[in-house]
Sequence to fold (105 residues):
Amino acid sequence: MEGTSLGSGGDKQLVCTLCGQPFLFTVGEQEFYRQRGFLHEPKKCKPCRDREKQSGNRKRSENPASQSFEVVCSTCQKTTRVPFRPIPGKPVYCRDCYLQIKRNQ
Ligand SMILES: [Zn+2]
Ligand SMILES: [Zn+2]
Fold:
């Protein structure tokens, strides 16, 4: 299959570079690509593109905030979050109290 210019009319059959399956680059999609100014044909079939999109979303949702733990400050009883798992029986301090203690040391 030679000639990569868009708009030669008709659906085009392309081969996905990811899964090796043939897929259709329809006239509608070609039009869409042309409107967007894309000069190249898609290299991946739709299922593969969707899968990549999904895995991209999953990566983004894995933020470090999930690694923080809600604790109650031993000094002021304020609820706060710490980036480590609190040890039972050990005092935990909110940021303010922690800084206060550090300053008094
Ligand atoms: Zn594919
Ligand atoms: Zn506190």
Q: What stands out?
A: Strands lie at 12-15, 22-25, 69-72, 79-82. Residues 25 and 44 are 10 Å apart (CA to CA).
